[in-house]
Amino acid sequence: MHKTIAVEIERLVKHPTYGKYIRRTTKLLAHDENGTSKEGDVVTITPCRPVSRHKSWRLLEVVAKAAPR
């Protein structure tokens, strides 16, 4: 998966019956032309034309770099 990043989007959804908030995640594949992002970075993606079968997003910018281990 050269030039591809997996982006995980997390949101809170309220349960319809119990009212408790549930954490839901969505994974998207995005096109990273220059390979600027690393694991753990916070990024901004934008929709674009389909690049491949599963990639319809592209990397716009890296908002925050991941903390070094």
Overview of the molecule:
It contains no helices and four strands. The protein has 69 residues and is an all-beta fold.
Largest sheet: 4 strands, mixed
Radius of gyration: 15 Å
Approximate helicity band = under 10%
* Unreliable residue runs: none
Average pLDDT value? 96
Percentage of residues in strands: over 45%
Shape: globular
**Element-level helix/strand string:** EEEE
SS content category = mainly beta
How would you sum up this structure in a few lines?
With 69 residues, the chain is mainly β. The protein has strands at residues 4-14, 21-31, 42-47, 55-64. The radius of gyration is 15 Å and the shape is globular.
